[in-house]
Amino acid sequence: MRKVIFLFIVLLAASCSETNEQKAVAINPQELYSKKCASCHGEQGDLTMGGAKKIKETQLTKEQIALQISEGKGSMPRFGDRLSKEEIDALSVYCLKLAGK
Ligand code: HEC
Q1: How far apart are CA 22 and CA 4, in angstroms?
Q2: Cβ atoms of residues 95 and 55 within 8 Å
């Protein structure tokens, strides 16, 4: 019986540390987009506040989108100094998803 309890505790500890690690690296592009982008582009990428383009209809590639998020363009602010490369990457993929690609 003791062995079983010991095993249980070890498993529990292992599963806890695993979820903590996942939390540290997990990026939630949807949440990031809501916070940083939706004010101009809308939750579905179909808003054009302040001259923003419809992300839903973008013809840009993932690399071009990542560059635009990082460097900004026209009245779109640059996010290169506020977001990590991984976050920008995840957002680029999310934009393509909004565009149905
Ligand atoms: C202050 C408003 C504003 C915010 C915030 C903003 N954008 Fe933009 N975005 C624009 C404007 C304006 C353009 C059009 C730029 C141009 O081509 O002149 C644009 C263009 C784009 C385009 C290119 C679309 C195309 O087909 O040319 C993408 C992709 C994009 N934004 C993604 C994002 C993402 C992702 C975020 C959040 C990290 C974001 N934007 C935040 C205003 C904004």
Answers
A1: 27
A2: yes
Q: Tell me the sheet residues that pair with 76.
A: 73
27, exposed or middle or buried, with CB in 10 Å at 0-12, 13-18, 19+? middle
Q: How far apart are CA 28 and CA 49, in angstroms?
A: 24
Q: Return the best residue to mutate from 32, 34, 40, 97 for the ligand 1 pocket (most ligand atoms within 8 A of CB).
A: 40
Nearest CA to ligand 1 atom 14: 52
Averaged confidence pLDDT in the chain: 87
Give 64-83 pLDDT, tens digit per residue. Answer: 999 999 999 999 999 999 99
The CATH class of the 27-98 domain is mainly alpha
CA distance 56 to 72: 18
pTM of the model: 0.83
Q: How many CB atoms lie within 10 A of CB 99?
A: 16
